[in-house]
Amino acid sequence: MSILEKEVRYCKGVGVTKARDFARLGVETLKDALFDFPFRHDDLSNRIEISNIKSGEKVTVRGTIALITNRRSKNNNRMIVTEAIVEDGSGSVKAIWFHQGFLTKVLKNGSVVSLSGKVDDKYGLFLVNPMYEVIGNGNITKHTGRIVPIYSLTGGLTQKVRRSVAESSLEGVYEVKDWLPGGILKDEHFVSLHTALSNIHFPNKMEEYEVALERLKFNEFFLHQILHGKARRELKQKVASKIPFSETKVKEAIAGLPFKLTNAQKKALWAVVKDMERTEPMNRLLEGDVGTGKTIVAALAAINATASGWQSAILAPTEILADQHAMSLNKMFAGQLTIAVFTRTKRRVGEREVTKKQMLDALANGKIDLVIGTHALLSDNVLFNRLGLIVVDEQHRFGVKQRQALKDRQGDEDGIPHLLSMTATPIPRSLALVLYGDLDRSLLDEYPEGRQTIDTFIVTRSQEEKYYQKMRDQIDAGQQVFVVCPLIEESDALGVQSVTEVYNNFVQGPFAAYNIGVLHGKLKAEEKNKIMAQFVACELDMLISTTVIEVGVDIPNATVMFIEGAERFGLAQLHQLRGRVGRGECKSFCFLHLSGDISDLAKQRLQAVVNSQNGFDLADKDLKLRGPGNIFGTDQSGFEAFKLGSYADIDLISKACDYAKDYLDEDPDLDAWPALKERVLEYIDEIHFE
Ligand code: ADP
Ligand code: MG
User: Pick the residue with more confidence: 200 or 648?
Assistant: First the structure.
């Protein structure tokens, strides 16, 4: 019986309710738990004798409980205070817990315990809210006296339960096949996969953790490089639809635009239509900061395709964005293109709502020239008449498999569609070369004329009233305000707490008179859509959300972006958030609100955002100021959502890249390394089902 296939709900201390919380974190089986890594570790290994503890230190002591009692707090009658005296032969110390009355049931007189926590000296030396663990006869501790893993939690989950599930999962670590070719293992002196998995959770020393991390990151990069290298090689052998450049039609469309294209847009469009003329499938990345006008380039490429009878599809990351793209493009090109939107909940051709069947028929008959949709477009029953061009907007995991999933009714004679990917995530050049290899790239390094700069201010705690007033002024003038909150608590992965906190402050204080909507990860999709729709319709003055929530929509009426705890975000991310405003005619503002005193370095970083309006520059600055570790911030998963690796690991990435190339050169089918081959196939499925 496989250990790793066991469902976590059968683990000790889990049960149905906690299993539901686990499921929200994507952990259903022990295998999931094994691969759900801690996001940091706390070093509680400073174990000392009680007689040696000093105020202010974080320590672990081990001793016997001599006394434990509950009482009510003198200041707050509703709060239970638990006090215990612990002795270890060298001396004794008091430990105090708040709101944990149950502890007298868990820790009894005479229990041998290990306690980790901070030493305070307000009333003589004592430990404040220490982590506790009862030590039986054995000597091994899991939660104290060692380096302990800290995991993302949600709902009623605790680190203790999460750790015990991790521990159970490690019992099955030997079921995991180490698929990395032995040659690489040997040459790079990597630890085995089993050791790595064990030490990524429970290292005895931080060095063990580092080594494990290196190995697991390499796994990610190598697999990624193999997959993409393989895909590129396969793609090169495929034949694509040859779509001639319909110069007159494209020029007409450009002439009909309400604005002049930037030179960068013209250049990019030119490159795209040239690519489309060839039978080698286009694989081009269109990069450009927020607001540089990528969508128009894609739409003009679609016009070019339509001119010779080809259909195009744009894949957007969310339903709201798909809908917005469709509406704005429909306004511009209604006479020239039949544009449809197709998501789980929205189906329109032009401005007409249609049934699913009508939509599928229209796609299959070729009545629709350009369809804009979400992943719903990739489902099996969607067939095109002649699909010539796929555009992927800010969706990084789109690959060969998805390209194949978009099916053409004509079958193979038409060849495979050309692919244009678009992104606003700035990636340093050096890195892009390694990551994309021979992918063609176009950069929109120019902003449309008349684009306004967004006045950006750093707001300290003492200044906030002044800026709240500015926000009220904007709302009173009919504008709208975005408020974005950082995820602070690890237990608040869905952002409920941080958003609620700000909301409560605002409705009870500075914004009591206004309509405020909140968005967080716990809301259902329909609720989110409803609130977004209300904001779009101007029924809400203010929208408070985390970044986890898609604020990528175009709300020209919003003129203020207020970022709470701004020092917690990456610069590129701050810039992208700022790009949500300044989309209309009106002067727009970005307020970077600090959550407290911050370091000079942090101030310098934020000052860079105040001074520069260019996301690619800011990414470079962040690289210089903070070192490579932090370019993309933590909750901006970047281009390929590596679990552990980041673009900062450029050396490891290029190493993985070189190895992947060598291995593919030697045997493109990977038959020489069956375990690797199997892992690659599995990986393709994992990506496909995301
Ligand atoms: P992004 O690159 O962030 O996806 P969009 O394509 O959404 O940018 O364009 C942002 C806005 O700028 C849209 O309202 C679009 O119509 C407008 N726009 C695009 N190109 C130009 C241009 N050359 N001149 C003026 N406005 C433009
Ligand atoms: Mg865009």
Answer: 200
Phi–psi pair at 482, nearest 5 degrees:
-95, 140
Tell me what the pLDDT averaged over the chain comes to.
Answer: 87
What string of DSSP letters covers 225-286? HHHHHHHHHHHHHS-B------HHHHHHHHHTSSSPPPHHHHHHHHHHHHHHTSSSPPEEEE
- Model confidence pLDDT, tens digit, residues 66-87: 899 999 988 888 888 999 999 9
pLDDT in tens, 204-235: 999 999 999 999 999 999 998 898 888 778 87
- The rounded Å distance from CA 576 to ligand 1 centre is 15
Q: State the Cα–Cα distance between residues 388 and 406, nearest whole angstrom.
A: 10
Tell me the two tokens of residue 210.
């580092």
Whole-angstrom distance, CA of residue 514 vs CA of residue 547:
22
370 CA from centroid of ligand 1 (Å): 18
Taking the CA of residue 332 as reference, the ligand 1 atom at the shortest distance is: 16
Best residue among 295, 300, 392 to mutate for probing ligand 1, ranked by most atoms within 8 Å of CB = 295
Ligand 1 contact via 584 beta carbon (within 6 Å): no
Residues 262, 266: Cα–Cα separation, whole Å: 6
C-alpha span between 60 and 189 (Å, rounded): 34
Under DSSP, is residue 364 helix (H, G, I), strand (E, B) or coil?
helix
